[in-house]
Structure formats: structure tokens, C-alpha cells
Amino acid sequence: MKDLSPGVRPGLPNVRMDGRAQLGAYTYFAADDGIHGWELWRTDGTPEGTSLVTDLLPGREGSDPSPLVRMGDSLYFTARMRPGVSAEYDLHALWRTDGTAAGTRRLVTLMRHAWDVTVRDGLLFFRASPQDDFFGMDPQLWRTDGAAPGTVALTSEAMLANIGIAGGGAGRMYFTSSDGTLWVTDGTQEGTRTLRQFGSRPVGAFDSEWSETAAMDNGTLYFTLPQLVESTPPYPMETVIALWRTDGTPEGTRQVNRKAPGVFEHEPTQLAPVNGHLLFVDERDRQTLWSMDARTEEVRQLTQLPNTGHSMTFVSTDTQAWFVRVLSASQQELWKTDGTPEGTVPVMGTPPGSPRGWSPHLLTPVGGTLYFAAREDAELRDSLWRTDGTAEGTVKLKSFAGGPTWVDLLGIYPVGSRVYFRARVGNHQQLWVTDGTAASSRFVADLSGDDPRDPGKGEWAAVGDTLFLSLGSTSGEAPTLWKTDGRTSGVVRALPKTDVTAPPARLTTNGNQLLFWWTDGASGYELWKSDGTEAGTVPVKELRPGAAGSVAVPGPLVPLGPQGPWVFAASDGVTGLELWRTDGTAGGTKPLADVLPGPLSSAPANLRVAGGKLFFTAWTPETGREPWVLPLR
């Protein structure tokens, strides 16, 4: 690509690609060209596009930048500040860069490199020794929001008391603290109380959704917890996964499904409430689907997979769940259940005319029906199917037989009375639509400009009968926001082209418009809106003009009511990352709460609405990260 250091220097590699990071169209890495020492470089894959970003420490030794970590539209790294001193006992600095020399600035001076660097909730956390800790005896936990005033040391890790909000219902919220205590609150000080101290946190408590290990059912929280129990020799103890439930009272917080102290019938995972039952898969074999009656706590087996090495997974609604029963590598069956053994029945086995079997996947409930992709006869082409839960009501809506060798369905999107589906067909990404019949399934558009090898998550949202789709690209063209109403011959590109690589994020329906986060290249991430036209696709309000933007990492827009307004975390450059609200207009976008007044950020996260109150977690120097509540008027 480019010889950064012409000539031969045996034993001295001049490029470190193991710590590289991607930002925009460029890859950033540390390199030594024999003149500047180890410094930050970037490349777009061409010789003319490979260059030194900035020479932070002039001279032969170099600043030795590492590690490179991306947060939002910037890279962060630590680098040496002075030559001639052992790197082990040397001053370093934390830097932020937008990929240009002018956009590279120092945030804080440290002793040694930073380590344990991680991004969470729009903040960069790392461990490092302060400038005056010469021997490194007092490393601290730090965090930055991307600005020098927002780069601070937390005096101890205990101050970063991570709170995991499990969920809410019946006017209350549950959360866990870092010492393993389960709490409940109704949003008042007197209604906030401990339920039980476990000594260890519930499994997945750091996850914002507790997706596989906790479930809410009519105000009752089910969760799992690792527990040490006596084992058989030669091992005195072993860890098992225990199932718990709480109704919001200490006496109602207890283990379930236990035969005797330390003896558990099952080790549940993938918890999901369905029709008055709690469905789960046993962690010990992951091949059996079980159901527990929420009222009697009786546990019954619904079905078991043969020992094929496949794990049981399912998708669920409030009234039923769908899953694939794998009999062998080529024989699979689609099943459904209402949570009872008698209501657990096969929907369809191998379709007629497919003697070599099929493989249903991408299960997507739509109303009372299920849309899914399937491959037949060991082909490499997906087809789109729909079922109403009966064999005769299971039909193929679109077949790609006779087309390119490879066809992968990437997403299924219900919008109004239609269902769109996105497919990678050979070297193209295509958008199709169906009304639920094979005759109505038709091609909508070729999503040109998007690299079929890197489809991304394809965020989407429905505004009325219009589908908005956000697609990334690695082909050099701008990521785009697309729309279609299914009746036009193509997809409309709603955003102007720029050299930005980040696609629109957090697509959210707001009445007859779309809200989302986006960066246009001139400014950082800001909140945008779109009515589906280029002229109507504009920033809602530029909260923080300039390259920094109002957020480093786009967060969710949380509705305060059925139709909004919406609450989110952002910074206007005067205050730190704090709570804002918007109704989709400039005048209706205003601060909601400044938990930590001044330039520092409280970094609100885990936003939930229940019982007319907004629950969230926030950080202050005095308390660390703790749960907060804001009454909604």
C-alpha cells in the first residue's frame, strides 16, 4: 500500500495494525516511518490516501499512541508527552481526534497509558494513574464525555455503582445495585426500599434489558441468579442458575422451582411470559422447552430436541410462542405453543416437494401470524413464508429459485397492512413487499450504493404506511435514509450525500414524521426529523453547533406518552450530558432536567417510564451512579 519507512530495519516492525480502528472511510493505526517515531497514521487503502495524522511528540522517539478506541465520530487514545524518559515512568495524555491534525486535542494528562478502556452510555471509561502518581500505586477509574472539562477521575470504582434497571409494571420499577442488592421503587423516597441482598448480581444485571435472564409479567419480576451449591466429589461446590421471582415485597421475593435447599429442578434461561405461563430453556442442555404456570408454579415439559447439538430458541408474543424443532441437520419442524403441553403442536414439517428438508429462521411475529425465512433442499437461497399456525395456512410468499446462487433474507418489516422484506440477492440488496399472499409479493427497489457484503443492522421505522430504512455503506458512498410506500417503483433517498460513514441511528416514529440521530459531516450527531422529502429532512435543533455534536453515541428516544413527547440525553456544550425533551419541533426541544449543573455530565441512562414518572440512572461526584426519578406533569 505504502512504504512508510523505505529501507530495511531488521527486527523492527514499522506498522502496528493489531490496534487499528475505523473512523469514516479511513483506518487509523500506529506506525514508525523512521523520522517521526511511533505516531498516529491513517489510510483509505491507497498510497495517496495514507498519511501521518499529527506528530504529537516531535523527534525520533514518537508519542506511541494506544489504544485506539472509537466513540461516536471521534477516536480516543493515550500518548507519551515527553522524550528521553522511560515509558514505564512517563507522562502521557488522553487525546481525542476527528482524524485531522487540527481536530486532535488533549483532554487530560496522566501517568502511563490508559487501560481497560470501554464505552458505555455515551461515555468513555478507562483506568489510569493521575499525573502525580509517579510509581503507579494509586490507579483510578476515569471517564470522559469527549471534552476536557468532562474528563474526570472517579476517586474509587465504588463511585461508579452500576445500576441495572430490570423493568417496571404496576407503577413500580426494579433495579439492582453493584453490591447485588435488589431494590424496588414507586418513584418516592418512602416507596424506595431493598427487597433482598444477594451478594452477587442477578445474571445479566448490567444489560439494559435483561433480555434472556429477566421477564416482567403483570408487575412480577422473574430473574435468575448464580448460586453455589454442594456438588459431587471430587468437586465440593458448583455454580448453578437459580430462578427467583418478586412481587415488589421482601416476603414475596423468593426462589421458585426448588426441590430442596441447594437442589434445583432446572437452570432457566430465555425467560418469556406467555399466556399466564413463564417459558424457559434449561441451561444444562438448551434443548428442552419448559413452561411454569405463573399461578401454581407447576413446571411442565413442552418439547425436547433430539441430541443434534442445536440449542432451543423461540420468539414469543403475549399469547403464544414459535420455535423450530431440529430433528437432524436436514429435518426441521416449525412449532407453536400457548404455554401448555396440549397447546404445544407442530405447525408444519418438511414442505411437500422438499425431500431434503428445510430450515426455518428469522421468525417474525406479525399480529396473529408468523413471517419467516426458510431454505429448502439444502439450497443456498432463502424464501419468504407466512403461517397462521396451521399446516394449510402455511404458504410460501416469495421464492428466489432460479436466481443467483446466494439469497439471504436480512430483515422482515411489518408496516401497516404490508410486510416488507430485505434480501441480499447475489451482489445486490433488494427491497420487496407483500400483502400476505404469493400473488402480491413484488419487487420494490434495488438498494444501490450499499455493499452487499456488509448489510449492517438495517434500522427501520414505520410512519403511517411508509417504511423508513437506514442503511450503512462501505462502498465510498454516503449512508442513507430510504423510504417507500410500496407503490412507487423505487426507494427515495431522503438525505443528501456527504462523506459521512455513520448511518442515521435510533429511527423513531413521531406522528407523521421520523426522528433520528445523524451527522452531516459539518457537525457532530444532532437530532433530525424527516417527512420523507429531502427538503423536509432537517435538524430538529442544533443543540451544540460544531464538530463535537450534542452526543458522542446516539442514545434512545424514550416516549413520555403514547404519542410523545420524547426524552433523551444530550449536551448543548454549556451543560454536560443531561436530560432533554422534544416534540419534534425546535421550540419544543428544551432541557428537561440538569441533574449535575455545570459542564460535567450526569450521563442519564436506562430511561424508563412507569406510573407517570421517568426512572433513570445518573452519575454525580457525591453519589456515583444511582437511580433517579422525575415526576411527569
Concise overview:
The protein is mainly beta and 633 residues long.
Q: Could you walk me through the main structural features you see in this protein, from its secondary elements to its overall organization?
A:
By secondary structure, the chain is an all-beta fold. The chain has a domain at 15-159: Neuraminidase. 0% of the residues lie in helices and 49% in strands. The protein is built from no helices and 52 strands. Strand 46 (558-559) and strand 47 (566-570) form a beta hairpin. This is Hyalin. InterPro entries: ELWxxDGT_rpt.
Tally of individual helices:
0
> What is the CATH T-level topology of the domain at 15-159?
Neuraminidase
Helical percentage:
under 10%
Backbone CA Rg: 27 Å
Corresponding CATH superfamily of the domain at 15-159: TolB, C-terminal domain
> How many distinct beta strands?
52
CATH class identity of the domain at 15-159: Mainly Beta
> Strands of the largest sheet, in order across it?
5-6-7-8-9-10-11
Overall mean pLDDT: 79
Q: Any idea what the CATH architecture of the domain at 15-159 is? A: 6 Propeller
β-strand percent reads over 45%
User: Helix/strand/pairing class, anyone?
Assistant: mainly beta
InterPro entries: ELWxxDGT_rpt
Protein name: Hyalin
How does the SSE layout of this entry go?
Layout: E1 15-23, E2 26-32, E3 38-43, E4 51-54, E5 66-71, E6 74-80, E7 91-97, E8 104-120, E9 123-130, E10 140-144, E11 152-154, E12 164-169, E13 172-176, E14 181-185, E15 193-197, E16 214-217, E17 220-230, E18 237-246, E19 254-256, E20 258-260, E21 263-264, E22 268-274, E23 277-282, E24 288-293, E25 299-304, E26 314-316, E27 321-326, E28 332-337, E29 345-348, E30 358-366, E31 369-376, E32 382-387, E33 395-398, E34 407-415, E35 418-425, E36 428-434, E37 442-446, E38 460-463, E39 466-471, E40 480-484, E41 492-493, E42 505-510, E43 513-518, E44 526-530, E45 538-541, E46 558-559, E47 566-570, E48 578-582, E49 590-593, E50 605-610, E51 613-620, E52 624-631
Antiparallel strand pairs: 1-2, 2-3, 3-4, 5-6, 6-7, 7-8, 8-9, 9-10, 10-11, 12-13, 13-14, 14-15, 16-17, 17-18, 18-19, 20-21, 22-23, 23-24, 24-25, 26-27, 27-28, 28-29, 30-31, 31-32, 32-33, 34-35, 35-36, 36-37, 38-39, 39-40, 40-41, 42-43, 43-44, 44-45, 46-47, 47-48, 48-49, 50-51, 51-52
Organism: Corallococcus aberystwythensis
Protein name: Hyalin
